[in-house]
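re: that chain from earlier
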Amino acid sequence: MRQRRKAREVALQVLYGIDVAQGNLRETMDLFWDNFDAPEKVKTFSSALVEGTWHNRAQLDALISSCAENWSVERMSIVDRSILRMAVYEFLYCLEIPPKVAINEAIDLGKLFGSENSGAFINGVLDALYAKLRESEGT
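^ sequence. v structure.
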């Protein structure tokens, strides 16, 4: 398994844990790494994703809401919401990652960890958001 894919899976699990338990980011990360091991590159990238996503979630949620027709972020499943937040974080802050890669990775995570409709739902929201971001940039 590619290291970035594994890092995204770890980040999703940690974000899910923080959201469910309304917990502390650092404590949740430490608890995860006390029980699981991974290569240093996985730890580094997953930590960056978790911290960036969690600290910017208000901005990310606003963007997601603007493209999730008839859905509030609060009504989304925690898995879908966490995946969307992480992918949008990658769009905005991980400029070395092509948006299409972030979208494909998010869809795959949705299919793996979400419901049978998660992949299509995530795809629809992220495609709309990507188009909106490209339009606002004038590209």
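The helical segments are 3-21, 25-35, 40-55, 57-67, 78-93, 99-113, 118-137.
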